[in-house]
Write a structure and sequence with these properties.
The chain has helices spanning 10-40, 49-60, 80-89, 101-112, 123-132, 139-155, 158-168, 178-186, 195-203, 218-233, and strands at residues 68-69, 170-172, 175-176. Strand 2 (170-172) and strand 3 (175-176) form a beta hairpin. It has one domain (19-239): Biosynthetic peptidoglycan transglycosylase-like (Penicillin binding protein transpeptidase fold), CATH 1.10.3810. It starts with 9 loop residues before the first helix and ends in a 27-residue tail after the last helix. A three-stranded mixed β-sheet has the order 1-3-2, covered by helices on one side. The chain is globular. The chain is 53% helix and 3% strand. The longest helix is centred in the N-terminal third of the chain and has 31 residues, at 10-40. The protein is mostly helical.
C-alpha cells in the first residue's frame, strides 16, 4: 500500500525565511542607525535632514535658496542661548529621558476632552526629528522619531544633545543654528549673545519662518520676556547641564507660551 503523500512544506519554509530576513533586516537597521548616532556624538553634522529636505524642495520649485548654517562647539555659544532654548521649549530637559511623559499625558487628556491636540516634544525629540527625519506628521514618522530619541538619549550626554540642537534648530527662513542666526540678526557671533537676544531667538522656534528675532512682533516680544523670566527662575545657566538640577517649582508645563 502506498504511503500517503506528506503535506507540502513550502509555505512553512517560506515563512521561516521571511522571518529570518525580517530579523536580520531589523538587526541591520538598528546597527546602521545606532552607528550613525554614535558617530554624530563626536562629529559635527555637515547638515540635517531638515536642511536637505528644504534644499531639495526649493530646487524642485526652481527657487533660489541659500542655507545659512555654521557649526560652532558648545564652548563658543553664550551659555544664555541653550538656557533660553530650555526655558522656552523643554524645561524638563536636564532630567528627562528624551520624553516628557507628564506633558504627553496632559496633551492626550486635553484632546480627549475635545481640545486641540498639542505637541509635547522635548529638545531630544526635536533634535532627532530635525537631524534624521522629515517634516510632517504620520504615525510612521512619529515612530521613527521615538526610536531615534531613544538612541540619542542612551548614546549622547545632555551637553551633546543641547549642542547639536542649538546648532541645527531652524531660527529663520533658511537660517539654522545660533551662530548663523546671531550673525544674521544681531551681527554678532553666538559667543556674544545677550540674555535678551538669546530669548528672542528661542521665542521664534515654534514658527521660525513666520516670526523674526530682529523685528519681533508684539507676541514674540511677550514670549521672549516670558522666556527671560523663566531663565531667571530656573536658576541661571547652570540649570542646563547640572547633574541633578532642581525641578522648576512654579513652572506650568502647559503654559500658553510652551512649545505647541
Amino acid at each position: 500500500m502506498t504511503a500517503p503523500a506528506s503535506a507540502p512544506r513550502k509555505p512553512r519554509s517560506f515563512m521561516r525565511r521571511l522571518l529570518r530576513w525580517l530579523l536580520w533586516g531589523s538587526i541591520g537597521f538598528i546597527a546602521i542607525t545606532w552607528l550613525e548616532v554614535l558617530v554624530l556624538r563626536f562629529v559635527p553634522p555637515p547638515a540635517s535632514a531638515y536642511m536637505l529636505e528644504r534644499r531639495v524642495s526649493q530646487a524642485l520649485r526652481k527657487h533660489a535658496f541659500t542655507i545659512r548654517y555654521h557649526w560652532v562647539p558648545f564652548d563658543k555659544i553664550a551659555p544664555v542661548a541653550p538656557l533660553a532654548m530650555v526655558a522656552g521649549e523643554d524645561q524638563t530637559f536636564p532630567f528627562n529621558h528624551g520624553f516628557d511623559i507628564a506633558s504627553i499625558r496632559s496633551a492626550i487628556d486635553v484632546a480627549e476632552d475635545g481640545g486641540r491636540l498639542r505637541g509635547a516634544s522635548t529638545i531630544t525629540q526635536q533634535t532627532a526629528r530635525n537631524l534624521f527625519l522629515w517634516s510632517g506628521g504620520g504615525f510612521f514618522r512619529k515612530g521613527l522619531e521615538a526610536y531615534f530619541t531613544v538612541l540619542i538619549d542612551v548614546t549622547w550626554p545632555k551637553r551633546r544633545v543641547i549642542e547639536v540642537y542649538a546648532n541645527i534648530a531652524e531660527l529663520g527662513d533658511g537660517i539654522y543654528g545660533v551662530e548663523a542666526a546671531s550673525q544674521a540678526y544681531f551681527h554678532e557671533p553666538a559667543a556674544r549673545l545677550t540674555k535678551h537676544q538669546a530669548a528672542l531667538l528661542a521665542a521664534v522656534l515654534p514658527n521660525p519662518r513666520g516670526w523674526h528675532a530682529n523685528h519681533p512682533s508684539a507676541y514674540v516680544q511677550r514670549r521672549a520676556a516670558w522666556i527671560e523670566r523663566q531663565m531667571t527662575q530656573l536658576g541661571g545657566v547652570g540649570y542646563v547641564l547640572e547633574r541633578h538640577p532642581p525641578r522648576p517649582a512654579d513652572t506650568d508645563p502647559h503654559h500658553r507660551y510652551r512649545k505647541r
